[in-house]
Amino acid sequence: MGKRAGTGWGLLLLIFIFGSACSDKKEKNPHVIIETKFGKIEAELYPQQAPKTVGAFLSYVDSGFYKNSLFYRVLNDGNQPSDAYKAELIQGGIWRSNYKKSQTIKGVPHESTAQTHILHKDGVLSLARLEPGTGTTEFFICIGDQSGLDFGGENNPDGQGYAAFGKVVKGMDIVERIHRQPDQNQTLYPPVAIYNITRK
Fold first, then answer.
1. Rounded to whole angstroms, how far apart are CA atoms 146 and 15?
2. In this structure, is residue 182 part of a structural domain?
3. What is the mean pLDDT of the chain?
4. What is the CA radius of gyration of the chain?
5. Which of 10, 17, 49, 59 holds its CA 20 to 30 A away from the CA of 95?
6. 164 occurs within a structural domain
7. Is residue 10 part of a domain?
8. What is residue 27's predicted lDDT score, i.e. its pLDDT?
């Protein structure tokens, strides 16, 4: 009787430890919901690999910056010069919906793909930027694999690439639908509403 009881307690302990490990994994990789005009996109973020970028992005989410923001830019095969290094993506944030606010936010220290090992694969989220360390609220989602956006890639003259920090896990069909919307010189026309971005 005592031996069986001991085995039972051991099993319960294993279940508790396993359950805690699973819970920790969920906490380490928070999810956000991007609610758009066309439906919801769910993304998983990777704070262990890109702590500064994820921390900043979640601070914007928690501050409500993305309420009534926009997807406003698209890159596709037809709207880039034939001699340019091309990329396929949609870009959004508050630059068009709240420009004044976007100009007050301090840039996030650049976390390159060489550091994070999060490559610009299909569905990956990354910070838009000018110079390294200037990325803030504006982000893009890759359509297909975009190795030119990684560290050492040809899409950025400084060779530092962009700071990838998450990936779409549900709603890639919504991302692709946004990507198919009409544009004028890489500007979505009309832009696609982001009603809000919130933690799941």
1. 41
2. yes
3. 90
4. 20
5. 49
6. yes
7. no
8. 60
Q: What is the CATH number of the domain that holds 130?
A: 2.40.100.10
- Helix H segments across 30-181? 51-62, 99-102, 113-116, 172-179
- Predicted confidence (pLDDT) per residue in 103-130, tens digit: 999 999 999 999 999 999 999 999 999 9
- Work out how many domains the chain is built from and give that number: 1
| Structure tokens that stand for 48 in this block | 């262990």
pTM of the model: 0.87
Under a CB-based contact definition with an 8 Å cutoff, are residues 40 and 51 in contact?
no
Torsion (CA) 136, 127, 135, 179 in degrees, nearest 10 = -80
Residue 106 forms part of a structural domain = yes
Token reading at 133? 């360390």
The 10s digit of each residue's pLDDT in 79-100 is 999 888 899 999 999 999 999 9
SS3 content of the chain, % helix, strand, coil (to 5): 30, 30, 45
